Structure formats: C-alpha cells, structure tokens
Fold this sequence. Notes:
Elements: E1 3-10, E2 19-26, H1 33-42, E3 70-73, E4 76-79, E5 92-95, E6 102-104, E7 107-108, H2 111-119, H3 140-149, H4 157-161, H5 175-185, H6 193-201, H7 214-218, H8 225-249
Parallel strand pairs: 1-5
Antiparallel strand pairs: 1-2, 3-4, 3-5, 6-7
Amino acid sequence: xxxxxxxxxxxxxxxxxxxxxxxxxxxxxxxxxxxxxxxxxxxxxxxxxxxxxxxxxxxxxxxxxxxxxxxxxxxxxxxxxxxxxxxxxxxxxxxxxxxxxxxxxxxxxxxxxxxxxxxxxxxxxxxxxxxxxxxxxxxxxxxxxxxxxxxxxxxxxxxxxxxxxxxxxxxxxxxxxxxxxxxxxxxxxxxxxxxxxxxxxxxxxxxxxxxxxxxxxxxxxxxxxxxxxxxxxxxxxxxxxxxxxxxxxxx
Length: 251
C-alpha cells in the first residue's frame, strides 16, 4: 500500500453546511490517524489536486487520556491518537461527533459535558486551603471499583454513541452515571450523595436512559457504565422511598 485515502467531513464555521473532501496520504507502517491528519495540514491539497484550507482538528496528550482528538472514525466514535491505520478499513472516513456543536471541521465543543458535571456536583467538597490532615480511608473493594470509574476522561464518545443524547432530548448522557457513582462512594463525597441523586432525577436525568448499552461498547477505558446505571437507578429508587415515607411520617 503506497498511500491511504482519507474522506473527511468538513465544516467551515458553526453555522456552515458540512461537505466532504478526499485526501491522499503517503503510507507509513504504524501510523495513526493523527499522523495522517498532520500530513493533510502540511499539504492541504485534495486527492484530485485541488488546493484547499488545512483540515482543523484538536490533539494534546496523544496517549488516550485527554479526549480532545475524539471523532467518528469509520462510523465509530473513538480517539484518533489510538486509531492505527493498519487496523482500519480503507478508505478511512472521518467526521466530527455531531452530538456536540461543531466549531470547525473535526473540532467540537464539549462544553455541555462539563455543564452536566456542574449540575450533578461531580466533585468532592472540601472547605478551606489549610492542612486538614489525611483523608478518610476507603474500603479496598470500594477503592478498586472507584479506580475503574475514575478512568473516565470525558472524551465524549459514549455521548455520541448513545441514541438518547440528541438535540430533541435533555438527557445529560451515560457518562454521568459513573461520575455520580464515583463521587457518592467517596467517604467525603458521600455526604452530598442525596443532592447529586436528586439532581440526576430531575430534567435531563436518569429517566432519559434507554439502556441501549452502546456506551459500554465504545468506551475506550472499558468503564462498567451499565453497572453504574443499575447502581444509580437503585440509589434513586431508595432515595424516593425515603423521601416519600419521611414526608408521610412527618404529617
């Protein structure tokens, strides 16, 4: 194989119509999609010899821990840095994850993911900047489970794969389940678990999940999202019962 063909869905501005361009890239063993995109940026000429603007995309860590190079590659949302050309079908098609607003070409705005984290208070609240000593110890089984959940780097591919995350739904997305479970299992974060659970029981919350399990199939870190879905649903049900019978007994 002397060259590879990239079919890239491009978009000049957030309100522009998308269009496709094909690029021919010289083949080298062990190259990834980022390497191929870097060639198109240095040589912005389409496969049929037409000069064009350099393709725009984002990259940072190049080791699958930042999520900014997430895009749809051959129909599957994933990271471009770990997508090896030798392991992909050809020609290679690239498009932005349209669950999010497109800024330009393959660059997207993942801002609504971080807005979702704010809504469900996805942090461990510790007041003050002074030394408060060592934190509480966690049970080893909980620590191992929490470590798996903490691998989420908000890359957004589970959001793009989920059929319930779209412009007609307020669903915050499948990644939120594991974020709530992670913070609620922490000895300090547990103090605010009712607030997190209630936030996700409201508009755009857990009722929007259709349990299609696409999220688990595409998660690059193998996070047990469906297990988190079950755990958070159970916590929500228990919280509802406690709230109902608590208010009933106070009458």
